[in-house]
Amino acid sequence: MLKRVLWVVVPIIALLGVIGLMVFAAQGGTMQMIDTKGTIGDQQRDTLFLAVAIMLIIIVPVFFLAFFIPLRYREGNKKATYRPDWESSKLLEFIWWGVPIIIVGVLSVIVWQTSHSLDPYKPLTSDRQQLKVQVVALQWRWLFLYPDYQVASIDELVIPINQPVEFTITSDAPMNSFWIPQLGGQIYAMSGMSTKLHLNARESGDYRGTSANLSGEGHADMNFTAKARSIDEFNAWVTSAKDSEQLTVELYEKLREPTRDPATSTYSLYDTTLYDSVINRYMGSEHGGGHH
After folding, report:
1. At what angle do helices 39-72 and 90-117 cross, to 10 degrees?
2. What residues contact 226, with CB distance under 8 A and at least 6 apart?
3. What is the pLDDT of residues 204-244, one digit of tens each?
C-alpha cells in the first residue's frame, strides 16, 4: 500500500515544486528572465508562462500515467483486467492525438502573434522621444555610443526609466549577442552588419547585461551593467561624461584590442560617425578597408 501511495505522491510533489519555484521567481526571485523590469521583458515572461501552462495540459497527464500504468498493470497486480485481444480505443486515440494537435495549433497562433508584436525592430509606443544608443561589441567588452549627446561609455549603459531606447548594434570582433535579461532581448551583433533592438526600463535599478554568444576566451567576462535612472540622473551622467577624455579614432583603436579588463569608463564622443566607420571597416570602404 505504501509503495502505491509513493508512486502517485512523489511525482505530484515534484511537479508542485517546479510550479512553486516559478511562482517564487515571478514574485521577485533571482531568475532574471522572470523577475523582469521592462516592457518587453514583461511581455516575454507572460508569453513564457502562458506557453508552459498550455504544455502542462500534456505534461501532467503524461507524468501521471508514467507512474500509474506500471503500478496498475504490474505482474503482481492480479486485480487488473487482462485483455490480450484489445487493440485500440477510438476515444483514447482521439485524446492522445487530438489534444496535442489542438495544443500545437494554439501555440502556433501565440508564436505568430508574439513574433510580430515583439519584433525587436519595432519601435515602442510612447509619448517620449526614444533614446538612440549605438552598441559595438569588442573583445571582450561593450562600447556604448550616444550620438545625440556626444558621449560614450565602456561596459556601462545608462538609460532613463520609462523612455524607449533604440539600440543599433554591430560588432568589431567575433559575433556576439546583446542581452539584458530583465529588460528583454536578445539580438546578435555581427561585423559589417547593423541590427536593432527596442527596450524600455520601467523601474530604476542596475541590471546585468551580457553576451549570450560564445566569442572566445574572454567571453565569460564580457558583461556590463545597465543602469536605469531618472531623467535628472541621466542628464547628470551625460554632463559628467562630456567632461571625460575624448574618444578619438586613435583611442578607439586601443579599445578594440582584445582585453579582459573589467574596468568601466566614460568618454566625450569626438566623432559621431564612429559607428558607421566600424561597419565600413568590414565593407571594403575607404574609411577602414585595411583593418580586417
Report:
1. 170
2. 157, 159, 180, 183, 201, 206, 207, 208, 209
3. 999 999 999 888 888 888 999 999 999 999 999 999 999 99
